[in-house]
Amino acid sequence: MSRFPGMPDKIHDQTHRMLCLLAVFVAVMAVYLWSMPKTVVLEDDGTFILAAYFNGIAHPPGYPLYTLLAHLATYVPVGSVATRVHAFSALLASSACLLLWLLAYRLLRSRLLATTVSLVYGFSTAFWSQAIIAEVYALNVFLFLLLILLCLQFRDNPDTKWLFVLICLVYGLALSNHWPLVLLSSPLLLALVWPVIRKIIPHMPAGIVCLLAGLLPYLWMVINSRTDPLVSFYGPLESFSDFIFMVSREGYKTIDTASSADWTDKLQYMEFLLQELYRQFRPFGILFVLIGFVRQWRVWPINVATGLLLGFTGSTFVLIALLGFDFDIAHKNLFRVYPLIAYAIAALWAGLGISTVIDWLARKYGMHIRRQTAAGLVSILLVLSVLISNIPENFRAHDYMARNYAQTILNSLDSKAIFFTYADIDTGPLGYMHLIEGERPDVTLYNSQGLIFANRLFHPFKSTRSERKKHVRKFIDNTERPVYFSTTLPVDYGFEDYGLYARINPTISPEQRNIVLSPEIVGFLEKEFSNGEPYDHWENMLYRLLESEYCRITASQLLFRQHAGAEDFNPEILTSVCRGFYGGTELIELMLNRDNPDWDFLLELLHATEARRDEAIRMEDSVSIYNLWGKYYQRRKQPEKARELWEKSIAAWPDPGNRAFSLIKELN
Q1: In which band, very low, low, confident or very high, does the pLDDT at 368 lie, cut at 50, 70 and 90?
Q2: What is the pLDDT of residues 72-88, one digit of tens each?
Q3: CATH architecture of the domain with range 530-667
Q4: C-beta pairs of 563-566 under 8 Å, 24+ apart in sequence
């Protein structure tokens, strides 16, 4: 009977569903707005904000749909540009949670369980992390969940042409956002419509037209690239081969595939995936995920259960089988967010798991009257446990590390300086602060790889290494402005090392490196270290690299004072300056290059640094400690022991870039 006279029960139920949807949206959106950073951060955040603000082209495959929509978000006159784009991600993620609610309600027929599923997923570690920064994953999840709902609706109404046409349009749009992850999960969509697959044939002509319409953002990307916007990853896409190079991510081959990676790396990624799945739902939730996974085969149609399994494995185990990454921290951070669709499916299983457990308790103990109360208590505990557990990692409202890093660099440069950025870690923050926030307008930014900025000196993927070197050298030789660079340049010059960057000094030989202690840079580094290690995975990587920079510039000065016979020199200060794995390897390198190092202190340092090897970001960094051990034994006139350590290094990372290969060759 309806609660209100004359109101049908169906309308009453719809009202409750709308209230639940509103509550979910408000809850997750409020948490996202509360926790999101108010300025630029790391990962791809800075480069995506730049592409959005300048209506440019992001990194391969271009993500034209996201860039277009995020560009519109930059016009909202509230907060900084970074705040606007972050809030846009929050809006997409909150909307994705609404779609997940609708999907969960369709499968579980319970408003309470649908609310639990959507909130647990919304507050899960990985999805929350992408919901509050400039990234494409929230849009990817939103579009794919919409596709699942449309496919289920089409399965029930296979003669409805407009449904199939809409599926094709949304599928094209999803491909225009993140085609690799969409393709990996597409078997789920096929499984959902499999019972009515023959009904698709009459709709195919219209479907193909709509699919192509959904791909139109790629056409916009090509046309827009030829206007050469201020921010465009490769510059003008002048031919079909250029377009394929961009969309296929051909330029990322060396990043996506490592010659040293083998099946053991894949097994390690599978173990890491299971650990990450546990982290999303914590011990209280993972049990329900497992129960729901088993139970689905008995309560849901076989094509739905099979489809969900295919959708889960697509962006997890299948993806791992296709990846050629080394198993290291850098690539784990890349992989961490790929399985977001799989985690949404796992949240559905968790909802079914809760329903299964509550039904079992009701049957066993006669809890018919208290079933809803028990389900409510379990749901509240699960949602709160996930939310509270993930606040430390995802609360970033006061995250200013990337901004401070960029400001420190920009404000410590000479007047009218030229600065060559290298990778996302500096290009994004510096580009945002300089080009959008207006920091140091007298400075000019270039990218040493010819990427991102329109003022590139050479074509990034059509020029040879020698041509790049020629163009950069000609540019530097013909300018009277001070030239700085981070990480590397494709030319050899003498330079002054400031830690965060270097300044070219043409008056000294290319082999010479002068260490300069800048009060601004040292102050920034010491302040960051006083704050402790950050929770964010990408900032944690930067933090560790900053340890190396701090060690190099300060320890070099300390060792010079020791060499000069300073009476107040205390060698223990070196270990406090060069802390962590990166600081340790830097200090060992510095000491091994000296004529008469303190061998006992060096041996102790080698042992201490090797014990922190798990802090290494990349495999090449991880094996560097074995290479340093080998150099130590080489200096101590023990060549066979040195060879043993270098062979151990090669066994751990058999990549041609491993320095151990050349060290063994020199030994022979």
Answers
A1: low
A2: 999 999 999 999 999 99
A3: Alpha Horseshoe (1.25)
A4: 563/594
